[in-house]
Amino acid sequence: MVTQQYKDMLQGKSVIRQLSEFATARGAEIGYENVFDYSLGNPSVPVPQKFTDVMIDMLKNRNPMELHGYSQSQGIPSVRQKHAEYLNKRFGMDYTGEHLFMATGAAGAIAHAVRLVSQPGDEILTFAPYFPEYGPYINLTGAKLKVVPANTVDFQINFDAFEEMLTEKVAAVLINTPNNPSGVVYSTETIKKLAAIMEAKQKEYGHDIFLISDEPYREIVFAGVDAPYPSKYYDNSISCYSYSKSLSLPGERIGYLAVNPKATDAALMSAMSAQISRGIGHNCPPSIIQLAVTEVLGETADLSVYETNMNLLYNELTSLGLEIVKPGGTFYMIPKAPGKDAKEFSEKAKKYDLIIVPCDSFALPGYVRLAYCIDTEKVERSLEAWRKLMKNEY
Prior knowledge:
Aspartate Aminotransferase, domain 2
């Protein structure tokens, strides 16, 4: 019999994908260059030339079996060790290669992390606004995602609600900083307070509560913004990283999880992740991509365009009267919808070929998300459409 659960999921199609498809169809009518598509968070800057050069050199000069053969289930040992050394140097940690597991992006890392530290029936907390795919990531493991209401003043953590929801059933807390969709970066003060509360609750309940930190936007942090490494402040932590944004490699599906060496059973978790892979068909990302990203550790694409785009939009939209908590990173921002109806605002914006996403699915009704990972020239041209929208409709 066909599994009803997945059939039912077909009815919950992503609003982001629906709007992206609308933008594509509209582009076929009027030229996509005339559609101001802020729907999809797809990196818009090219990969670093150094990465391209490394790939070409490897294909020309390395043993094809090394590049295209299977690696160990945990990832290539030299890759894991070099990542550990890089993280130690950058963040003052004590990782070894045995604390690293190579994964298919941050999504693959989270899929393993959740299974490492929870069992069916456990609760995992996250904070609104949050990436909607956390729902299937977690709920399909048998654990239950619970969402802490947003702190809409500054989109740091709503600690009062968090402490109330941090019950004995909670096995892990999932954070995303810099955050999709708000663009806000959790401060050192926020991370320290979060860690202190979790440490106290671990002692009170007599069991581990893990911190899973989703960090695909780690490198996209704007000038002067405080951006701590969460694992530095909490022992039972797992960092989940992706090169999709930092190197503009979303299609290559490469990332890792790094288990804090001070965590419970830290030395076992990479090997345990390999066993998890047997059950979910992960079977390790491509060898050539593992090797290539390791040759460019510390390199990024030219990420400065995102801060340029953010400032253009933030300055214009706030001057038009929209309320926005200024992003500290990523390539997203979430204006508050005038009239407080985000779906209505999104529909009205379509009339001006502005494609923006209501944040209802991010657990933040009344706001819209803008993914400003588009050409700066197009951002600049969109400003007149924003002016017309606000003048004519509001």
